[in-house]
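Repro case for the chain-ordering regression, as requested:
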Amino acid sequence: MVTLAPASTDTLPIVRSVEDLRAQVAAWRGQGGTVALVPTMGALHDGHLALIRRARELAGHVVASVFVNPTQFAPHEDFDRYPRDEAGDSAKLASAGCDLLYAPTVRGMYPEGFATAISVGGPAEGLCGAFRPQMFGGVALVVTKLFLQALPDVALFGEKDYQQLMVIRRFARDLDIPVRVEGLPTVREADGLAMSSRNAYLSAEERARAPELNRALVEAAEALSGGAESGAVLDTVRARLQGAGFGTIDYVELRDAETLEPVVRVDRPARLLAAAWMGKARLIDNVPVLPR
Amino acid sequence: MVTLAPASTDTLPIVRSVEDLRAQVAAWRGQGGTVALVPTMGALHDGHLALIRRARELAGHVVASVFVNPTQFAPHEDFDRYPRDEAGDSAKLASAGCDLLYAPTVRGMYPEGFATAISVGGPAEGLCGAFRPQMFGGVALVVTKLFLQALPDVALFGEKDYQQLMVIRRFARDLDIPVRVEGLPTVREADGLAMSSRNAYLSAEERARAPELNRALVEAAEALSGGAESGAVLDTVRARLQGAGFGTIDYVELRDAETLEPVVRVDRPARLLAAAWMGKARLIDNVPVLPR
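-- result from build under test --
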């Protein structure tokens, strides 16, 4: 049994090895407890903390993991400069009611001789999967490991990374991982910008223009719900983003809400998703589109 | 809770869905029981039954799975003609002390929309991995599923498929699957031929010549243990196999016993492995080579 430092309002027990994690989870289970896991890459904001609060409602004990996972970044991406702040994260997690922070090392997760990879098709195809071909395989690998290390009853993810949520549901079901996957609505700033650790890359001027991404999607979703064909509506979104000072627009697409297959006219629950660059930040957002 | 038919000496309860499997395992666990899993493709012989008997020693309850897994066969391979005999398998399992047969359907294992794959490098490279590039990914996928469906304490595999055993150990460790993997020595016919479901493909004449594979490996292992360089020794094995009427020799190789990296002179535990065709049967065998 691992000995944990006592929790207070602003500190949190931390474990760094899978053995210590499993010992704590086993102790809780031995008392009949249930466990929720909230996997994160740290740099926590209110979106993450909403996951922690919901996890508290769903299970007796809440574990958050903080691990910036190298296998989901391509060499040219922002692994090295991705924001890291363990002390700040720990205080935020404690304040939201988290019971344990699991912060493994890269060497602990991927030791010498590591030789296994997971690939996902279906919902991982297209959208972010087309622009970041390394990402979902890396996500599948690290999330599978975290699930099997902690074996929680439930794991929570934000809908801000909607495609990721559908990919996680897919491989968790395909591999028979005995964990329930819950998605939570995106948490937004007052002006609609989806909370994201990468918003820290925005200058003040870029930050002021960034909410246009959400506004354009919300208005387009309204038109699509009313039965408009997607072609012209998506073109309008692209034009608005260009007009608002976005750089490269990776995609603006209408997809089936579950399979993520392309949708032209909304006759079943769909999702409108976009990714576009604002300065050095690649921003993503998505909104539901329900048939009326 | 699933209701199972009572076991007798020659019948065995069978479940075909993961829900029924998990219900039975949960019932055993609820009584404090431990569980062993023996994954097979059926067509059972004494090698499989040795795994069941050992499983009985290691755990309170023994589950055998019988599933001819399509994802580990290439289109030109013997998936369709692979021997199947559920009634015979069931009787043999019952007589060896198995408690439950899990025989899922292909559709149950790989439902519509299935989109996940696993790949393994390291020990999966070379040897059978070079000649059957589809196999170890398929093995990793189905064994991961079986492990996560049953969540046994221990799973048992024969050393006859030595590379497969090392691959399973590798991905189980890499993915943090909480199952102990045990390997058991190859069970052989009186003349040394490794027991295999594929021996059924041999004609009487081929069957009489097949034991030369094991004899050649055993004598070569003796020379290699004594410090001989592998080159000439492996050439001798190949010549003996050709002389005995084997057709294509896929490989004869000396490898590290754990990593399966190539070895030239035995200064640590090694393994001598071979695959060669006799008529329509691709026979594999391997023997340990310890430094003296």
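Ordering looks correct now. Residues 222 and 289 of chain A are 8 Å apart (CA to CA).
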